[in-house]
Design goal:
This protein is an alpha/beta fold and 399 residues long. It is built from 14 helices and 19 strands. The strands form four sheets. It has a seven-stranded mixed β-sheet, sandwiched between helices. Strands 8-2-1-12-19-18 form a six-stranded mixed β-sheet. The protein starts with a strand and ends in a 19-residue tail after the last helix.
Amino acid sequence: MAGRHAVVAGAGIGGLAVALALHRQGWRVTVCERAERLPEVGAGIVLAPNALRAFDLIGFDATRAAGEAVPAAMGLRRPDGRWLNRADTAGLRARYGRPPLAVHRTALTAALAAALPGDALLFGAAVTSVDGSGAAAVARTTAGDLTADVVIAADGIHSRLRRRSFPDHPGLRYSGETAWRTVLPADGPPAPAAEETWGPGCRFGVVPLADGRVYAYATAVVPEGHRPADPRAELLRRHGHWHRPVPELLDRFDPAVLLQHDLYDLAAPLPRYHQGRLAWLGDAAHAMTPNLGQGGCQAVEDAAVLAYLLGEGDADTDPEAALAAYSAARLARTDAIRVRARRAGRLAAVRHPWAVAARDLAVRAVPERAALRALDELFSGFRLPERPGGPGPRLPHAA
């Protein structure tokens, strides 16, 4: 049996990715998930080149495991159909080695879970608190206490463990937008390439998935907690007069599988991403709006860096020093992306006609080469840090 044990709170993409990375380094892992099973419904996710590289380092082929992946270079349009800019898949591939790839989120989490040992997932067990100040960490869960060398809080945007450990932090801030998401089955006309349309205070996006399915989403500037009685009717009112195929896609929306979530991010960065033998990861550490498509991608980066710094399960790495190094390595990058995502959302959500016209003109005026350069820090800025005390062993698949 592995010499070291990690408890992971949350079986989302980040939690499962870090569990798999540690498992492949010889750690024993226990993933505590408060739900009784992995979710069976969900939306799509676009894995940017930085997330794909992080998965490479872990040794997990995300695109193959989750089914055929579809390139997702996002173009922008106006409601009348005119292009603001058009992404070039070939250009993204040439610059970053591969374009962003779209997969179904539930297929990805299922594939990550399937790569773990059968006894690694503990369902119906929420981690309620952690004592990480001693020689070992104790995770108190609704299924009993677990002793571990480290506990990793991947318990999502509303992280209970974050709130308990940082009671004076301002917490989440509503962005002013809500989002509807769904995946349409492969029984309709084929969707166009990935694209997003910006209107006054609302957006509509479409991303083709494998097997003809379509990930579709919409956003709107509305009061927090706004929940229309008939969401499809509201979406048709907002977007039904837009260019094709937006009305046709909206006609296929099934309210029974239409997800709606208000969009939040952290109002301020956390002071650190660790406390003793407890570390935060993904949305629990740096919740951000989805405007750059980097929330899940940054969680996978977190997983690769954290596993790398913790080292092999039989190594003599100091867990607390490794978690402190992880916090130092990740805080600046993730918070800069959080702030950038917030600013991008504000730009996309403007409503006044003059502001909309100025925004659209500015987006159209950006040359393609400059637009690509703006992505460099997102897609090429990920790298593994130095370990405390020297390089040491690397992740199994690190170059």
